[in-house]
Amino acid sequence: MLKEAAVGDEVLSLCGEEIDVQDQIYQDCVRAYKLDKPSFYISVNPPFVDTEALASVFPEGRRSTFEKLLYACGDWDLVAKFDEQINDQFRQVEGLDADRIIALKSIKSTYFRGIGLDETEGLLERLAQIFPLVDLEGLNKGFEGIKGINPHIWQYRPSIDFHGFDNRFHAWWRSAIVFDFGQSFRGRSVNALIKGSVKYTLILNLIAFILSIITALGFVLFVSARSSKIQQKMDGLSSMLLAIPRFWLATLLIFFFANNILFPHLSFFKIGVSGATEGIFSYFQYLSLPIFCLAFPIVILLYKLLRENINIELQKQYVQAARARGLKEKTIFRSYVLPNAVNPLLTAIGSMVSRLLVGSVIIESIFFIPGLGGLLFDAFMSNDWPVLYALCFISGIMTLVGYIISDILYFLFDPKLRIGGLQNG
Amino acid sequence: MVKKYFSSIKQLWFSLRSSNPKFPVRWMLVILFVGVFLEFLSSDKPIVAKVEGNWYMPAIGNTLFELGLNKRYNTIRRYKWSKHDAFMIMPLVPYASTSIDLKNASYKGPFDEQNYTSIRYRHWLGTDKIGRDVLAGLLNGCRVVLKIIFLVGIISGFLGLILGGFSGFYGDDMIRWSLTKLLAYFLGGILFAYASYMLLKLQILESSQLDLRTLLFAFLIPVVGYMIVGQLHKLIFANKLDVRFGIPTIAIPLDSMFYFVIVLLTALPVTVMLLAILGYFQTPSLVLTMSLFGLVLWKNIARIIRGEVLRVKGEDYIQAARQLGLKSRQIFWKHIYPNIRKQFYVVVATVVSLSLLIESALSFLGIGMAVGEISWGVLLNQGKLNIAAYWLSLFPGILLVITVYSLNTIAEGEKRDN
Q1: HSE-up of residue B89 (Cα within 13 Å, Cβ side)
Q2: Could you tell me the pTM of the whole model?
């Protein structure tokens, strides 16, 4: 029954040519991903290792077996010959019945799993049972040769190989510099994946960022106008709120607002992003919870920073001078203290640009938003290295952009840094 | 005689005891207590039991047994204590964080009707999908927090203090090496690195996994090798051949080198970097993740320590110590370190609270913890899978917030006192 229900053509998968075709496709893929090239410009290895030739041995398990035999005997030619012979033997399926082909396939898969000397010996015995009529003397001789050599420690001395520009590192950087990250392991090109998801992250983070700056400034203005007792209490509260992690906040918000258990009438918040077909209002309905979660820690952090800076600035002498001149507290605060207190904030804004991606990793995976953060998480979970590298690259560039942005902001807000200001001394 | 000043730990304890508000320090002490005495508070085995005339302590028996202190434990190892009616004293929470209670599986809440024989066996804070007790998980989380604090604190604190402190102290021009020394160390470095690499590679090829002893050897080769190279250089070149042939000396730009590394580490956000690194490891574990945290987060400490050392370096007493002919190592440890010690504790506390947050975030996403290990982040992760089971996300979240708040407040208080 099970056999009938099984998917795939058994005969085809047992047939010899199919193995060759599979190998061909495999080799093509390997070449397309440039996996048969050495990984860096130079490599330091014992002199008996030919790094470029070793890199082109595929699949990976076969290379592992090759390497194990090679390091055990220290003679490239012997191992290469043995490897070639045994792979030739794997291909000779003519005149074998189905049972033997299956046994041969199992032996091949064992060899391709990466085995050592002892296991290879057992493998040869099994091979001899399958081909009782064929003379396997060459194979056995090769193996005896490999087993017989006990390399001197001097053979493991370092020797440096240069591979020129034809390596994986160079290839990756050459395409990454023009933002071409190749194919992801899940079929589509990395660029298409990123292009498809970057808009969600951008919309989400831009709105959250602008809203949080406005809110933080508003809070600071509100609190600073109150009595010192309230100020102290709010500052204490803010350091407690700072300890609330985004993801916990998100879980709580979903629990309270996005289900029907506690507040059935308040469950108008929807989570996740749909198309913008339902008009701008529904768009915000979908985004409100993620944006709140993204903005919350930023608001608290900015509030704390601003308050600290204001407290420092209020101690300074120019404030006393302004008071002595009889200016109103409100005027002093708005036109003297606040502009000075904002300056250190600009660095924080710059460094936050670099963390946008991280913040959205968690938020996007909770709210199922198909943005860059979700992409990063998926890439991690499925070991999708091209996507992971590309996102790391982009993240590094975002850090750079953050620094540049904070420099520009400094230039705009701090008159001391303007060229005219410098020239005037 | 000058009165001996307090030792590092004593000073820390005094300043913690007098800190205000009192709550954060007390909370951290509670965490310390629970983390250390976890088995006496939550375990599915009794603390003390009498079986066939012999007294046993099964709760900590396994630990003692593994240490080789308790041979008798082997006889009662496989007992099912819940079905056993010998004399025994159960811990406060009669469940371990990993013990599965199938009778109360599939998300039993704190107020739901539960299936238990005695009120002692009630799950006061509910259960998760396969019936593991949430309260036991919370208590186990305290131990995880302790592990994080110690591992991350020690690794990143050590690296940050040494690298940041030295790069600030020696600057770009205080270490001058002759060309021969530079050459010897450079070639020696390549050779030793290759030797350890070869050792590890042969070991991996032979048994396809890393042996701890080989790892130790691979670490010792460069250390011992560098010592030998240094001594050899002293014997042959220093003051002899170097002087005779007038070989020039070169300033080692230690500060620039370390700062370059720090900038490189800052280029990527910590979480992205950890995601990229953790992808290489097939079997995650707490110790591995925490060690990676330490190896990534030392940059935060090093940057601040470097600034502090630069501040202290210009003081008069350092100049005086130099004029008195003290060695630079003595100046660093006797005169500079005691003056930056407090800032060091502050920044370690902030780094530890940061790593607590990152760890729980990663566990929340299901990354970085070994399967079966319960921490607050893992409980939150289960809470994410079933939003309606609020007890899975509410309680660990509250504990996490309080702990992070406590660490932040302690650090802030220390900073304010300076």
Answers
A1: 8
A2: 0.82
DSSP reduced 3-state for A268: coil
Q: How many residues does chain B have?
A: 418
Residue B402 has pLDDT above 90, yes or no: yes
Nearest to B405 among A44, A243, A395 (CB): A243
First to last CA, chain B: 28
Which of A64, A248, A403 would best serve as a mutation to test chain B binding (most B beta carbons within 10 A)?
A248
Average pLDDT over residues B75-99: 76
pLDDT in tens, A193-250: 888 888 888 888 888 888 988 999 899 888 888 888 998 888 889 988 989 988 899 8
CB B23 within 8 A of CB B413: no
Distances (CA, A) of A64 to A19, A117, A127, A167: 21, 12, 20, 20
Task: Give yes or no for residue A268 having a pLDDT over 50.
Answer: no
Q: What are phi and psi of A133, to 5 degrees?
A: -90, -25
Residue B224 gets which letter from DSSP? H
Compute CA A31 distance to the chain's CA centroid, rounded to the nearest angstrom: 23
Integer CA distances (angstroms), A275 to A280, A373, B245, in order: 10, 19, 78
Minimum distance, in Å, between the CA of residue A116 and any CA atom of chain B: 7
Q: Among B199, B272, B357, B380, which would you mutate to test the A interface (most chain A Cβ atoms within 10 Å of its Cβ)?
A: B272
A301–chain B nearest CA distance, Å: 13
**Closest residue of chain A to B411, computed from CA coordinates:** A239
DSSP annotation of B132 reads B
B413, HSE (Cβ side, Cα atoms, 13 Å): 19
Angle formed by the axes of helices A280-314 and A190-224, to 10°? 50
State which of A179-183, A222-226, B156-160 shows the largest mean pLDDT.
B156-160
Q: For B230-254, what is each residue's pLDDT tens digit? A: 888 888 877 777 778 888 888 888 8
Compare CB distances from A239 to B208, B383, B408 and report the shortest one's residue: B408
User: Torsions phi, psi of B57, nearest 5?
Assistant: -125, 75
Does residue B402 sit at the A interface (CB-CB below 8 Å)?
A: yes
| Kind and range of the H or E run holding A55 | helix A51-55
- Neighbouring residues of A151: CB distance < 8 A, sequence distance ≥ 6: A72, A73, A74
Contact A159, A45 (CB under 8 A): yes
State the distance between the two ends of chain A, measured CA to CA, in whole angstroms: 91
Per-residue CA distances from B299 to A193, B155, B159, B269, B270 (Å): 33, 11, 8, 12, 11
Produce one character per residue of A351-381: b if its CB has 16 or more CB atoms within 10 Å, e if not.
bbbbbbbbbbbbbbbbbebbbbbbbbbbbbe
Worst-scoring range by mean pLDDT, A33-47, B50-64, B121-135? B50-64
Q: Could you give the CA distance from residue B21 to residue B35 in angstroms, rounded to a whole number?
A: 23
Residue recorded with tokens 């064929």: A134
In chain B, the percentage of residues whose pLDDT exceeds 90 is 23
Note whether ipTM > 0.90 here: no
- C-alpha to C-alpha distance for A294 and B99, rounded to whole angstroms: 37
Question: How far apart, in Å, are the Cα atoms of B374 and each of A209, A282, B377?
Answer: 34, 39, 8
Question: Looking at A114-249, which runs of residues are DSSP E strands?
Answer: 159-162
CA A351 – CA A138 distance, rounded (Å): 65
Q: Do B367 and A380 touch (CB under 8 A)?
A: yes
Q: At residue B54, what are phi and psi to the nearest 5 degrees?
A: -105, 145
Q: Minimum mean pLDDT among A91-95, B392-396, B408-412: which range?
A: A91-95
Contact A251 B275 (CB under 8 A): no
Provide the token pair at B332: 């660093």
Nearest C-alpha in B relative to A155: B198
Query: Tokens 């530079």 appear where?
Result: B182
